## 1
Amino acid sequence: AAYNVAIAGATGAVGETFLQILEERNFPIAELKLLASKRSVGKELTFKGKTYKVEELTHDCFEGVDIALFSAGGGRSLEYAPSAVKAGAVVIDNSSAYRMDKDVPLVVPEVNPEDAFKHKGIIANPNCTTIIMLVALKPLYDYSKVKSVVVSSYQSTSGAGAQAMEELMNQTKAWAKGEDITVEKFAHQILFNVIPHVDSFTDNGYTKEEMKMFNETRKMLHDDEILVSATCVRVPTLSAHSESVTIETVDPISPEKARELFAKAPGLQLLDDPSNNKYPMPLFVAGGDDCFVGRIRTDISRPNSLAFWVVGDQLRKGAATNAVQIAELLIK
Ligand code: A2P
Ligand code: 11C
């Protein structure tokens, strides 16, 4: 069988990655519809060597669509996903709009594939930072319940969209030419800087991005006791998010055991040979679908604690690949 697929937000950073992933994984597509704002109507995008014209995202553009992949911002998801469902499509939504809705499954195929089948038309794709952490956390969690997680992220500019990534490149070029640096997408200059601020701040002092890691982890692990304290930081890299993670478990997990569990885990590659300078880094992880884990060690500040470092391409596994894997689950 082949399916009619629509991509809402096809011209964005995640949208373009959707096209690459669908092509690489040879997803069975009958008809493909590329949707974006009015500004992009007529723009041409290529898929499997064929040119497609971008159409406007509207309430009645979903007729005949089986699977609609949304990544055009939460506002657009809230407005148009119900129209897609009404037209008979299953929506896989990459925004944060529906993630905590109790009628909407939140799914990482390596973590909770069974939840995907409980959908009522919409399935949510978690936040990229949560996905990357959970791909590594799940094999440990299955071995011993995890009580708490302390995580700091090092998030690439493309996490904030194609234009945000361009801002880093433009600031770099401007600096090299001795010109003034323009700041638009981030609260501060990102070149030569790190910004401890991703998404907006909430009343408890954490940002929304940090609270997504708390809430989404609980929802996907079906565990309302696990505690997650995150500090999310934007760094001047282009692609792939890195995370320093420390967990406290009920039963102790030695670094050797953790390496064994990580090595067997789906979607995860072990790269942990620090004496030869081998550990995951965004420059080398970007462009692939697997997350990489390394720097595995016993945390010496608390009992039953383990520290590790995990890196994943947030546009691929953190967004497009995960969404396409969900679609693959549904059609299997
Ligand atoms: P457009 O390129 O026409 O603005 P990114 O996350 O990389 O910034 O991409 C956002 C995506 O969401 C783009 O494809 C963008 O289309 C799309 N988008 C933004 N606003 C709207 C809108 N009002 N209606 C439809 N698509 C939108
Ligand atoms: C970032 N994680 O890197 C964000 C982007 O909730 O889907 C994705 C935000 C979200 O800026």
## 2
Amino acid sequence: MNKPKILILGAGYGGMISATKLPKYLGKNEATITLVNKHNYHYQSTWLHEPAAGTLPADRARILIKDVIDTNRVEFIQDTVTLINKDENKVVLEKSGEIDYDYLIISLGFESATFGIKGMKENGLAIENLNSVRQIREHIEYQFSCYHCTEKKEDERLNIVVGGGGFTGVEFLGELANRIPELCKEYDIDRKLVRIINVEGSPSILPMFDKELVAYAISRLESKGVEFKFGYLIKECLGNKVIIEKKSTKETEEIMAGTVVWTGGVRGNHIVEDSGFDVVRGRVNVTNQLRVPGYDNIFVIGDCANTPDPNSDRPYPTTAQITIQQALYLSKNMPKVLNGEDYEPFVFNNMGTVASLGHGDAIGIIFGKTKLKGTSAAAMKKIIDDRYLLKLGGIGLVLKKGKLNLLSK
Ligand code: FAD
Ligand code: NAD
């Protein structure tokens, strides 16, 4: 009898945990497992703000897929998914053509969402993947390197606008504020000439944290030179400036900037929408067993899924923490899926949230109530990062890529 074919799309948190854990729950003769990803490496999206600012080499945030999967059990195909043909159980790949499946796990992750802001896609830079963050780092360095080489010194070249003060925006601001003094030293630029301006539509940053932690984060970032424009929406992004609108009065202003980094939100991978799935902001409303309604053999996890939260009328937020739990849940239940048995709904166990404010500083809430700030929160963030590496590739991977150990570069 032919073994059922399980196909995993995308090697982010969801895809990698699925590819490493499924072989532990399924015998060799129970199923074949294939993983498709556009690169031969997995990158840690949760670290992307660091290489974007240049405070961590991009290579530290990536792991060769073949170094962590069991290639005797999982076939890895390096290719780009261009379409999912859900009615014929086939996936179209850019180079290898069609590949068929019996069970599909879609974990193609997130993309930057620009909500139709004029010029943002063309002129803004997004924290989206390893290539996009390398471009941000290089772009900022380029602007610094040009400063003394133009006839008329253009101070605006040194202005950096960060659009959006959610988690990604704040974590990037923290890294950037730490990196700027280094860049100033390297390029002989007076630190006072460099502006880092965060434009946030809401009255403050990070609304999910309580006032005390938010006030701490704002004061720490301001002390490192970040300027906040709260209650302003970016309306347009041009090559050398952004147009912002004060929400209360609708008055507009211009901010000249050599660099605009957009951190105003994310959506699910466009491939899912292009393939005809019903989506909201690129995300499929999955069932509480993470299946696509009407397609019992297709599962969506991570940032391409809107996962129902039984305690709220809104889906769970899209985070790596929930994605990892979804992949573990699905891997454990896959034997039941293959046998046509029922299984318990997915429930997210929220361990807490930590937002970095740059090296050695952070804010967080863990286990539902314990507030952390400063070095204790920063240490917790490192523990979370290393815990994932441990889960994925054991102690060897922690020693090679982890944040807490001394052996890593
Ligand atoms: P992703 O991590 O986006 O991975 C998707 C994978 O699919 C990638 O390998 C990509 O190359 C591949 N892929 C994409 N398109 C194709 C294609 N067409 N063909 C083949 N392969 C493809 N969450 C937390 O819980 N804690 C945090 O501290 C945290 N920090 C974050 C910091 C930053 C700067 C950002 C941007 C996000 C952070 N998040 C955090 C959110 C978290 O990164 C996402 O929720 C998580 O990455 C989702 O995992 P995923 O597996 O769905 O997708
Ligand atoms: P987000 O949607 O959480 O935040 C985007 C921010 O941009 C919001 O505060 C919004 O008000 C603002 N914004 C949107 N349009 C704007 C405009 N035109 N002008 C000005 N401001 C505008 O997006 P994110 O920060 O990229 O986070 C995406 C997901 O990843 C979330 O689920 C988040 O929880 C997760 N994440 C988690 C962590 C962490 O746990 N440490 C870190 C990064 C991201």
